[in-house]
């Protein structure tokens, strides 16, 4: 079940982010997500267009579309939930929000070494734009690749 996120979801969202992040990034970033950051996520959940996915009453994933920029800002699914269609449902829901907001193209970015999500986006029809964002995050160097998808 997908629903809008509420402030009370902060702990569960933080836990999903930490678990998914460790599973996806630890091989190339180390353990940068040792503890869930509940306060940070409580603030982020106040942003519009934030959705959570629940299974049997437990938050198992979340996503957010930035309706102003057309960017898929977050898409995380608990590693135990991956492969069950939750990520595809979340992605479809945030893309619908972008369409409703008038966007004809969606964008997102992911770390170059993040192989699983890169395969997921490619299989869903996303194309690399050739743009790269290089930045530092928690003392680690990131190289994020931009993807786009036509929404028509």
UniProtKB/TrEMBL annotation:
<keyword id="KW-0808">Transferase</keyword>
<dbReference type="InterPro" id="IPR050832">
    <property type="entry name" value="Bact_Acetyltransf"/>
</dbReference>
<dbReference type="GO" id="GO:0016747">
    <property type="term" value="F:acyltransferase activity, transferring groups other than amino-acyl groups"/>
</dbReference>
<keyword id="KW-0012">Acyltransferase</keyword>
<dbReference type="InterPro" id="IPR016181">
    <property type="entry name" value="Acyl_CoA_acyltransferase"/>
</dbReference>
<feature type="domain" description="N-acetyltransferase">
    <location>
        <begin position="1"/>
        <end position="152"/>
    </location>
</feature>
<protein>
    <submittedName>
        <fullName>L-amino acid N-acyltransferase YncA</fullName>
    </submittedName>
</protein>
<dbReference type="InterPro" id="IPR000182">
    <property type="entry name" value="GNAT_dom"/>
</dbReference>
<dbReference type="Pfam" id="PF00583">
    <property type="entry name" value="Acetyltransf_1"/>
</dbReference>
